Amino acid sequence: MIVSLIAVLLLIAAVAAMTQSTPKTESVSVSSASDVLFLDDFSPRRYAPMLRLATRIDRRYLASVRGEELARCYRKIQRGLLREYLRDAAKDFHRLYSIANARCLRAGSDPGDISMELFDQQLAFILLIWGIEARLLLDCLLPFALNPQPLIQSIEGFARMTRELSPPRPGYQAV
User: Fold this and answer.
1) Burial 113-149, CB ≥16 within 10 A → b, else e
2) Cβ burial 20-38 (10 Å sphere, 16+ → b, else e)
3) 82 and 50 in contact (C-beta within 8 Å)?
4) Are 140 and 80 in contact (CB under 8 A)?
5) Cβ contact 100:167 at 8 Å
6) Helix (H) or strand (E) segment spanning residue 86
7) DSSP state, 170?
8) Cα(109)–Cα(104) distance, integer angstroms
9) Which of 88, 57, 101, 81 is CA-nearest to residue 151?
10) 15-65 tens-digit pLDDT
11) What pLDDT digit, counting tens, does each position of 74-128 carry?
């Protein structure tokens, strides 16, 4: 009962967050050059350290060698670093979403319901972030397994989709 209530509240908050963060037509970035540079430089590999930070191996080792107090302190630092990575991931996802949304708005039609796919991807990403945040919040009380791999895969898949939607770079060819 409580779990279903929490799930409903999370979905309501997700919809509210998406409606507030969805870029308006007039605020869509006209500068596609910076978008292309961002897409070229973006790599989800920057989030690989999250995988190590999410494990409890280091904490267990510290607890056995140096004591439980130092292990708790170290885990607190790990949670803080994971939250920073989550914030960065959310910023990058929002930038990718803005680029993909701008491309859809510039297109005359919506082949294959791309706008619905963008919405689905955004909702799934928000739920992944919230799931990780909830586990981090409850980490000191209940030991939950924390796996950021689905989040990293989500960003990677969305970046690939955004690259496919983005207009190709203008190329210069020698005549």
Assistant:
1) ebeebbbebbebbbebbbbbeebbeebeeeeeebebe
2) eeeeeeeeeeeebeebbeb
3) yes
4) no
5) no
6) helix 68-106
7) P
8) 8
9) 88
10) 565 555 444 434 444 456 687 788 888 898 999 999 888 888 888 888 889
11) 888 988 999 999 999 999 999 999 888 887 777 666 666 777 888 899 999 999 9
The number of residues in the chain equals 175
For the chain, how many helices (H) and strands (E)?
Answer: 7, 0
Tokens of 6: 């929490």
State how far the Cα of 146 lies from the Cα of 148, in Å rounded to an integer.
6
Residue at token pair 């978008």 = 35
Q: Which residues contact 106 (CB under 8 A, 6 or more apart)?
A: none
Give dist(CA 100, CA 94) in Å, integer: 10
Q: Which two tokens stand for residue 154?
A: 């989500």
**Tokens 């701008």 — which residue?**
102
